[in-house]
Amino acid sequence: MSEPTSQQVRDFIAAGLACEHLEVEGDGRHFFATIVSAAFDGRSRVARHQQVYAALGDRMREQIHALSMKTLTPAEWAAQGAGQAAGGRPAQAPHHSH
């Protein structure tokens, strides 16, 4: 079985988990993913990782040897200044959706 590309790993995650932002970098054996999903809201880091592993299914065991990930909610992503320079303390997400 051939080693997956970063794009394939990204596609695998996106197919099983609704993501607002998804980046995957890697060399075919080791990957690092930044995953932003509303599905993570109210979940612990461990529960978030379990959701990603569930999305990957058997591929995690068979094809992906190592996956490091940063899992964030959209509000956490915005607070980190996603795509924008934040001066000082990050502001809260501008809109509240429940």
Any idea of the CATH class? Alpha Beta
**Low-pLDDT segments:** 85-98
Strand order across the biggest sheet?
1-2-3
Gyration radius, rounded: 14 Å
Q: Report the order of strands and helices.
A: HEEHHEH
What is the number of domains? Answer: 1
What's the tally of helices?
4
Question: What portion of the residues fall into strands of 2 or more residues?
Answer: 15-25%
Structural class: alpha+beta
Provide the helix percentage.
25-40%
Overall pLDDT confidence: 84
Distance between the termini: 43 Å
CATH H-level name... which superfamily? BolA-like
Q: Which second-level CATH architecture applies?
A: 2-Layer Sandwich
* CATH topology-level name: GMP Synthetase, Chain A, domain 3
**Major sheet characteristics:** 3 strands, mixed
Q: Tally of extended strands? A: 3
Question: What is the overall silhouette?
Answer: globular
